[in-house]
Amino acid sequence: MDRAGTALNDAFRLLQAPPAPTGEPPRPARRLRTDHESVEEDLLKLVLTVVELLRQLIERQALRRVDAGDLTDAQEEELGATLMALHDALSDLCAEHGYTLQDLNLDLGPLGPLLPRSD
Fold it and tell me: Which of 7, 8, 49, 73 could pair with 104 as two cysteines, CB 3.0-4.6 Å apart?
């Protein structure tokens, strides 16, 4: 717990505004929105994003196995139905909370988007 507290303290320290150049009045630091509702919504969006990322990774692995012929027809059918059900459930959760699946794609700056574009 101490390590987590130290890391959190370091993160907050790094979020402070840089010192103002000499002769200029200091700028206020950018503030994080930490009210209960915004933190709860951001956490929900992050969890949904991780679930969507995992769903896409599982889907790609399933396609590789199908292409390699590792699965029987029954297994392919079951896997396809399961992945479609997961996609539908995730879409329903997003809609329930006012998001779309495209809203879950985090922008990683110079690295680009987290999730590949859905077809």
Answer: 49
